[in-house]
Specification:
The protein is of the alpha/beta class. The protein folds into three domains: about 110 residues, translation initiation factor eif-2b, domain 1 (Four Helix Bundle (Hemerythrin (Met), subunit A)), CATH 1.20.120.420; about 190 residues, 3-Layer(aba) Sandwich (Rossmann fold); about 190 residues, Class II aldolase/adducin N-terminal domain (L-fuculose-1-phosphate Aldolase, 3-Layer(aba) Sandwich), CATH 3.40.225. It is built from 17 helices and 25 strands. It catalyses: 5-(methylsulfanyl)-alpha-D-ribose 1-phosphate = 5-(methylsulfanyl)-D-ribulose 1-phosphate.
C-alpha cells in the first residue's frame, strides 16, 4: 500500500477493499456514486477521515456524470452523505466538495484532491502533537500502549491519527509494545490494525476487547490512544463501539485516555453527545461469523456501531492544531483555540510536595521513581482536590511543575502536564475517609521489611515513639495486601478507615511500604518517621512488644 490508501485515477476512485484484509489486498475501483455509497455502507471504505475524502470524490463523480444539472448533483450528494450517519467527516467532505460545484466538475474534483493532499499533513501534525503529549504524561520509559479499532492509513487515507501517534512514538524509540483490541464485531483491530502495525514494524499483541480492562488492572497499559468519528461542542467523543468502556476502565486505573482526530471531526453544531445519531448495523454482524451461524436463528440483536464517551472521561483531544480546550474546565472555549493542561509551577502545595520529596529521596525512602506525596488543597473550593507527585519521575529531582492536581472524589487528574502517581487512589481514599491535610507514601526500609509476610495488623507496645502515632502504650497498625490493582488497595483502605474511625494515621502495604497522614505535610512526615523508627527498634531488639513493667522492676533502687 502506498502512502495514501485512496487515489483518483482516470476518472475513478481507487482504494483497497478493507473487507478483504488481511488475507487479500484487493484493489477497489469506483466509477459511480452508487459504488461509492455501497463501499462506504459496507465498510469497504471506513474510518472517518477516509469516508470524508471518499464522499468528496463521490460528489466529483456525480458532477462529471451530470454536468450542468446542479440539482441532480445535490441530490446525489445527499445520498452519499446519508450512507453513514455518525461520522461527521462524511458530511463535511461532501458539503465542502459540493460548495465548489459552481466551478464545474473540475472544480469539485480539485477540491476533493486538495482534501486528500491535506489529510496526510493534518494527520501527521495531529500525530506529532499526540506523541508529544503522551511522552509528557508518561515520561522516561518505554510505553505500553493500547488502541482500539483502526486509525491508520486505511482509516484516514494517509499516516493515521491514533496509529499515526504510535508510528511517531515508535520512530522515537519510545514504544515497548501496543495492545490491540480485536474490535468486535467486525474485527477492525484484528484484521486491519495488526496488519498496519506489522507493516510499520511496531511490536504489538492482539487481545479480545473484554481483556482490555484487565490489562490495565495488571499494569500492562500506560496510555490508551484512540481516534474519533465525531466530537461534539461539549467534548463528547463518538467512536467505535467499545471506546466508552475503555475510557471508564482507564479512568478507574488512572491511565491517560487520549483521542487523536483531525479538526474536521469536531462538530460544534452538535451540542452534546446525546444529540449524536448512533448508527445501528445489521444483526448478521453479530449472529454470524462469515457464513457460520454463531447464534440461534431469529435471535434479537443490539448492534450499535459506535458509542459516545463523555468529556469527563477524556484526558485530552488532540488535533492538527494541538491540544484543544478542555470543555469541562468551565472556561469559554475559543474556536480553534489550542491549550495545554495548566502546570502547577505557581502552586504553594506543589512546591512543598516537591521539597519534601527531595528530602525523603535523600534519606533513601523514595528510591528511583518510587513513593508519592500529596497535599489537600483548599477545603472551601467547590471541587475537593489534592496535589500529588507525577508518575515515573525521580523524586529527588521534582519541580513544582511535575505535580498533578487530582479530584479527591474520583482521583481524576484535572491539571498538570504529568500523569499522576499510580497510587493516587490510596491518597484519595485517605482524604475521603479522614480529615487529613497531607499523605506520605514511602518505601522506608525497616518498615517495609517489617511488613513482609504480615497479615491484618502489626502490634507495637511499650515504645515511647507510639505516642507520635496517636496512641499510648500499644498500637495495632493495619497491614493491607499488595494487589496489582492499586484501586483495589485504595478501596480496602477506604472501607477500613470508614469502619474504624479511631484507626491510627499510618498503615502498611505488605512487602511494599507505608502510608502516613496528618494535618499537614510536616505531621504526615513525622508520623512516617515514627513508624520507620519503631520498625528499626523492633528489628534491632528482635521485639515489637517491650514489657515496660518488668523493666522497671529490674532497675536498681
Amino acid at each position: 500500500m502506498g502512502e495514501s490508501s485512496i487515489t483518483w485515477v482516470d476518472g475513478a476512485v481507487e482504494t483497497i477493499d478493507q473487507r478483504a484484509l488481511p488475507h487479500e489486498v484487493r484493489p477497489l475501483r469506483l466509477t459511480t456514486v452508487d459504488q461509492v455509497i455501497d463501499a462506504i455502507a459496507t465498510l469497504a471504505i471506513r474510518g472517518a477521515p477516509a469516508i470524508g475524502v471518499s464522499g468528496a470524490f463521490g460528489v466529483a463523480l456525480a458532477a462529471f456524470a451530470h454536468p450542468g444539472d446542479p440539482d441532480r448533483v445535490a441530490a446525489e450528494a445527499a445520498r452519499i452523505e446519508a450512507a453513514r450517519p455518525t461520522a461527521v467527516n462524511l458530511s463535511w467532505g461532501v458539503r465542502r466538495a459540493l460548495a465548489k460545484l459552481t466551478d464545474g466538475p473540475a472544480g469539485v474534483l480539485a477540491e476533493a484532491q486538495a482534501m486528500l493532499a491535506e489529510d496526510g499533513r493534518v494527520n501527521r501534525a495531529a500525530a506529532d502533537h499526540a506523541a508529544d503529549l503522551i511522552q509528557r504524561l508518561c515520561p522516561d520509559r518505554p510505553l505500553r500502549m493500547l488502541t482500539h479499532c483502526n486509525t491508520g492509513r486505511l482509516a484516514t487515507t494517509a499516516f493515521g491519527t491514533a496509529i499515526g501517534a504510535l508510528r511517531v512514538l515508535h520512530a522515537r524509540g519510545a514504544i515497548d509494545s501496543v495492545l490491540v483490541d480485536e474490535t468486535r464485531p467486525l474485527l477492525q483491530g484484528a484484521r486491519l490494525t495488526t496488519w498496519e502495525l506489522a507493516e510499520a514494524g511496531i511490536p504489538h499483541r492482539l487481545t479480545v476487547d473484554s481483556a482490555a480492562a484487565w490489562a490495565m488492572a495488571t499494569g500492562q497499559v500506560d496510555c490508551v490512544v484512540v481516534g474519533a468519528d465525531r466530537i461534539t461542542a461539549d467534548g463528547s467523543v463518538a467512536n467505535k463501539i467499545g471506546t466508552y468502556g475503555l475510557a471508564l476502565a482507564a479512568r478507574h486505573h488512572g491511565i491517560p485516555f487520549i483521542v487523536v482526530a483531525p479538526e474536521s471531526t469536531r462538530d460544534p453544531a452538535t451540542a452534546t453527545g446525546a444529540d449524536i445519531v448512533v448508527e445501528e448495523r445489521g444483526a448478521a454482524e453479530i449472529t454470524h461469523i462469515g457464513d457460520y451461524a454463531a447464534a440461534p436463528a431469529d435471535t434479537a440483536v443490539f448492534n450499535p456501531a459506535f458509542d459516545v464517551t463523555p468529556p469527563e472521561l477524556v484526558t485530552a483531544v488532540v488535533t492538527e492544531n494541538g491540544l484543544i480546550d478542555d470543555p469541562t474546565s468551565g472556561a469559554q472555549a475559543t474556536e480553534g483555540a489550542v491549550t495545554h493542561p495548566p502546570a502547577l509551577a505557581d502552586s504553594a502545595g506543589a512546591a512543598a510536595v516537591a521539597e519534601l520529596s527531595g528530602q525523603l529521596y535523600a534519606r533513601g525512602w523514595m528510591p528511583g521513581t518510587a513513593g508519592n506525596i500529596s497535599v489537600r488543597e483548599s477545603p472551601s473550593a467547590p471541587v475537593a482536590t489534592a496535589v500529588i507527585t507525577g508518575s515515573g519521575l525521580s523524586k529527588g529531582e521534582l519541580a513544582p511543575a511535575d505535580m498533578v492536581r487530582v479530584r479527591i472524589e474520583d482521583s481524576r487528574p484535572v491539571a498538570g502536564h504529568r500523569r499522576p502517581s499510580a497510587e493516587t487512589t490510596i491518597h484519595t481514599a485517605v482524604y475521603r475517609s479522614t480529615d487529613a491535610g497531607a499523605v506520605v507514601h514511602v518505601h522506608s526500609p525497616h518498615a517495609t521489611a517489617a511488613s513482609v509476610g504480615a497479615t491484618k495488623t502489626l502490634r507495637f507496645s511499650g515504645f515511647e515513639l507510639i505516642k507520635g502515632l496517636r496512641a499510648t502504650d500499644a498500637i495495632d497498625i493495619p497491614v493491607f495486601p499488595n494487589h496489582a490493582d492499586v484501586a483495589m488497595i485504595g478501596a480496602e483502605i477506604e472501607h477500613h478507615l470508614r469502619t474504624h474511625p479511631d484507626a491510627p494515621p499510618v498503615l502498611f502495604i505488605a512487602g511494599h511500604g507505608i502510608t502516613a497522614w496528618g494535618a499537614d505535610l510536616a505531621q504526615a512526615r513525622d508520623r512516617a518517621e515514627c513508624l520507620e523508627a519503631l520498625c528499626e527498634l523492633a528489628s534491632l531488639t528482635g521485639r515489637r512488644d517491650i514489657a515496660t513493667d518488668r523493666l522497671l522492676e529490674e532497675q536498681p533502687q
